[in-house]
Structures are given as C-alpha cells and as structure tokens.
Design a protein that fits this description.
There is one protein chain. α3 packs across α4. This protein has six helices and eight strands. The chain has a single domain, classed as 3-Layer(aba) Sandwich (Rossmann fold), CATH 3.40.50. An eight-stranded mixed sheet has the order 1-2-4-3-5-6-7-8, with helices on both faces. The longest helix has 19 residues. The protein is 37% helix and 25% strand. It is of the alpha/beta class. The relative contact order is 0.14.
Length: 225
C-alpha cells in the first residue's frame, strides 16, 4: 500500500515508509520502529493505519539497516544518536503536515519498544504532536521532558515484560499525572514484551493486540480529527 520516501530534516534528508488512506486524506501519524529497524511489521502497522483513515509515516532510524539478532538490535539501539533521532522525528512531523492528504494541524505518534520511548520523547519535544501512543517503551538514553508534554498519552505495557516491568509502567503513569498530564496506562495481565508484534509467535497475543488497536484508533479519532 505504501512507498519509501525522502523528507527534509534540519538541512539534511531522512528516509521512511509512507502509507496514505484509500479515501485520499486523513490525520497524520508517525510510526516508530522497534530496535529491529524499519522491518515489514512496522510497515504493516503503517499500512493498517492508512486503512483506518490515517496518513502514516514510519521513519527509518537505521538508514536501511535491519536485523533479526537481538544482540545486533541492542547495539543498533544503543548507537542511535538521540539528537539525530529528534531531528528525524521533527522532520517526519513537519513532512506529514506539509502533505496535502494530511488533515489537521497536529499529528499522532506511536512506537514500539525503543520506538515507544521515542514516541513519548517526540510528543514532549514537539507541540505539533497531538496524541501519543507508547507500546512498552524503553531506551536508557532517551529521557522525555514530561513537563513540556502537550499531548495526551495512551500506554500499553505487559505484566511479564523483562525490559519494562509493571512497576516502571506505573511509575510513568504516576509521573505523567503528577506533571498534570493526561495519561491512560494499561498493563496487560500475562502478556510479554512485544505482545503486539504478530511476526513473533512466541510473545504475540492476538486478543490484547486487537484491543490495543481498537483503543489506539479511537484515541487518534478523538484527538486528531
């Protein structure tokens, strides 16, 4: 459904996967990859969002590199330049809002694992983000400025997550609410990290994934349309 595109980012150029809705226009959503890179699963999420009426852009943070090795994925994640990632996120937001098929003045963000933390980071760094979704977000070098956040946050976490345990999810919810922000955080009982990823049969939970999808689409419709 989508295509690879290039977009400007602070005088440079970034790449990503763009999927537009069949109806021709809709609010914009930035889809942020897991530590594996811009793999087919992330492109499929963008395609599904397009099918739901959104214009989705998934930036490529590894510039073409992908992996199936957890060790290599961890190295790629830790090597990510955070300032560079913020420029790419800002460029992606600006690019979406510059396109004729994107409705509204603010976009949504959604990310998974590493991307979940970057989704929150982007929302805190950019007032043009109007709705933030965080799937089990983690990155030790990414520290969102919650005080600057202007978007509501919808968060999905997992009870058996060894990377982001339930206590961390509850702490995030507490920190957001203490800062006066709108936060709806769910920890799914019995679920493991990456339970939304249907290409990983060992952790995928179809029931929870369907619930998250429905709630995310409703969240974007409420805040971006």
């Amino acid at each position: 459904m989508g295509e690879m595109v290039r977009f400007p980012m602070n005088g440079e150029s970034g790449g990503g996967y763009l999927a537009a809705p069949p109806a021709g226009s809709g609010p914009g959503v930035v889809v942020i990859q897991e530590w594996w890179g811009l793999v087919d699963h992330i492109k499929a999420v963008a395609d599904r969002l397009a099918g739901a009426g959104f214009t989705a852009l998934a930036p490529d943070f590894y510039d073409g590199r992908t992996t199936t090795s957890p060790d290599e994925a961890g190295k790629l994640m830790m090597a990510l330049n955070i300032d560079g990632a913020e420029k790419k996120l800002r460029g992606a937001v600006d690019y979406l809002l510059s396109r004729g098929e994107v409705q509204g003045e603010r976009v949504g963000t959604v990310g998974f694992c590493m991307g979940g933390q970057l989704s929150l980071y982007a929302a805190c760094a950019n007032p043009r983000v109007g709705a933030c979704v965080d799937f089990y977000g983690i990155h030790p070098n990414v520290q969102p400025d919650l005080a600057a956040l202007q978007a509501p946050v919808l968060g999905f976490f997992a009870e058996k997550d060894g990377f982001v345990p339930p206590a961390a999810a509850r702490q995030l919810e507490s920190d957001l609410k203490t800062a006066g922000k709108s936060a709806d955080i769910t920890v799914f009982e019995g679920a493991d990290h990456a339970f939304f990823n249907d290409t990983r049969s060992e952790v995928y939970n179809a029931e929870y994934a369907a619930e998250c999808w429905s709630r995310m689409v409703a969240f974007y419709n409420a805040h971006l349309r």
